[in-house]
Design goal:
The structure is a homotetramer. By secondary structure, chain A is an all-alpha fold. The first copy, chain A, is built from six helices and no strands. Chains in contact: A-B, A-C, A-D, B-C, B-D, C-D.
């Protein structure tokens, strides 16, 4: 994948050129994440689970799904940039916590994910 | 930020060790994105917009917000990995479309974002 | 079902006793709807589509699902009450629009719902 | 407000005429609730909290907000009907639990809602 820092730099320029940072307080950006996540989930709501992989690779739905995934990613990076949070560091921290929280021997093959 | 590819590799290992990929069809992962986005928005629902920046930097809420942001990021990366989508490329594509869709002269300083 | 007006009256009293209406501007209540909807979707994210009906009737998940459904309903009614919107009238209006938008002969048995 | 039972009867007829119940398993309907909630939150994401009441009563945004509120309500009622849950009873049960969970003397005027 590309360098996230250059993506964030491009996002900053996009927002600055439009003077939109005045609307981008963290509360509003959290709402943006949620509304874009709603659009992503809409792409799958009538798709059967066992057809969701094929659906995700068919040309037309894939283009829409990629756009919705991107919108969630953009919203998340805008929020991280606004509050000075390093997304990859936050993910690494959370993954370490999850590794401790869901021991392999207890959670293997279980959807209920006992902690 | 860290290298996204190494983050994805760590996520893959986490999932493989727990044999959870059987639950991770794209539909379920889209639902995961939405439910984690719901938890993120919950962190801000009673916070005033003009206090949201300070709230995001205060120690206790910041730790919770970082964890929720990470959960959304993890869900999004799991979905991208499942469907073979390069998140950064999808974001770059969408940003190019948004740049054309929201001309600077029409959208500058406007929350209604005329296209 | 019970009378919605008496439910709304009970919600008003609950909020008034706690002096919470100061937090309940329509923006915050829309966020409440979204965060509760996220919790509802979380109840189904690892459940197979063809097992979702049975899951919804099994004792333990049903109690959780009922609580999440109620939380979404409460949030929606609080928002309607705040902005002076009659929920049942809004639904009747939307259903009339949907009936015109999705003609039976075009949409019958189709998940893609052509308009 | 109107009688919820008659609203539900109209929804049933709408779905039956289009043979859509095949797509309406509870998992898919939970996703519908979440995606519609995302559209509702989108109506408020760039609106200031202290302008959200006026925004909700201005003609154009109000029509859109009413439609989104209705969509969430329809999705919730479809889910309740599918799983045989009485929405008003579920709300009354939850409100009783919330009344016990948030004692007036501890929660009065507090956004953090200590339990």
């Amino acid at each position: 994948m590309r360098d996230l820092d250059s993506i964030v730099a491009a996002l900053r320029q996009f927002v600055a050129e439009r003077d939109w940072s005045q609307f981008h307080d963290p509360k509003n950006l959290a709402m943006l994440v949620a509304s874009e996540a709603g659009e992503l989930v809409a792409e799958y709501r009538w798709v059967r689970g066992d057809e969701a992989d094929a659906h995700s690779r068919a040309r037309e739905p894939r283009a829409r799904i990629a756009a919705e995934v991107a919108d969630v990613g953009i919203a998340l990076l805008l929020l991280c940039d606004r509050i000075g949070l390093d997304l990859t560091e936050a993910i690494a921290d959370k993954l370490a916590k999850n590794t401790a929280r869901y021991p392999v021997e207890k959670s293997r093959g279980r959807a209920d994910r006992p902690t």
